[in-house]
Hints:
This protein has 330 residues and is of the alpha/beta class. The protein is built from eleven helices and 15 strands. It has helices spanning 39-46, 109-114, 131-137, 148-154, 170-179, 195-200, 204-210, 225-233, 256-265, 275-278, 293-302, and strands spanning 13-14, 17-18, 54-56, 75-79, 86-90, 99-101, 139-147, 166-167, 188-192, 220-221, 238-241, 286-288, 306-311, 321-322, 326-329. 45% of the residues are buried.
Amino acid sequence: MTSSLPDYDDLPTRAGLRAAWDVWGDGDDVFGCLNLLTPERVAAAAQLVRRGAVFALNWSMALPDPPLFGRGGYEHEVTGTGTGHDDVLHGWNTQSSSQWDGFRHIRNHAANAVEPGTGHFGGVPDDEHGIHHWAQRGIVGRAVLADIARWRDATGRPLRHDESDAIDPREIAECLAAQGTEVAEADILLVRTGWVAWYQRQPSEVRNRLGDVGEFKAPGFASGEELARTLWNMHIAAIGCDNPGVEVWPPSQLTRAEYEAAREEQQHLHEVFTHCVLLPLLGLPLGEMWDLEALAADCAADGRYECFFTSAPINLPAGVASPPNALAIK
Length: 330
């Protein structure tokens, strides 16, 4: 695949780390890799619709229960009597279920230490980023599915969904090759680990244990610069996964105490948590806990792992994250 974009190792550095802040031209950039979704590419992606089969990718807002990573659950109040009702959500966290991580979610502390106030993608001030920018533009294009779970099962190496089972980033290409799927510049990469389906089979005692942040473990891509290099060099517009964090959790082989120490130091956190590179330095939107089960079953049945993709994040001014409100159409 040819591209006008630089390879990861050719990107300029910021605070000693590769960064794509100047790739999209001058000015404050709030879109990052979403800039690849041009009108021409959207129109081409629309031609992928053949059967009109629609797959909704949002998981239930009530799952996981309890929420992960110490986030609180919401209370759903239905107000009104008689002929009309309203919904009121108390304590709703936009990252408690299927989500896009927006660029306000995480900053790079090393970059911020060099230029205070510029740790978020593009050097845009914290409160000038927001999911509303993505909502007003929409996220539309061609998506391809890498069904890592099904492929790993076929190779005799099934993923362990209750363990920190790290997926080597090189396995993305191996899985796609086995499927006969090609990734083009500006694609949205969907990755199925099978975690959502696994979670839904678990009894309440297992779900409660997963809600303890000190005990929680989940499969995902091995954290580190190789993950950043692999995803950037694919020149995708975004990645959406069905596991809780895209990368493995905990995000390194460190003990919990060592990880917390890295968080305290902050400037070294990127070495163990690739989120701190993917979002604030490379501008790659990350989708987590998407329900890819029905789409994956259909792709396996017809051997076609590409689709037309749409996502309409909520238009929340200065919002940190959003449910994807994503559809895959074949």
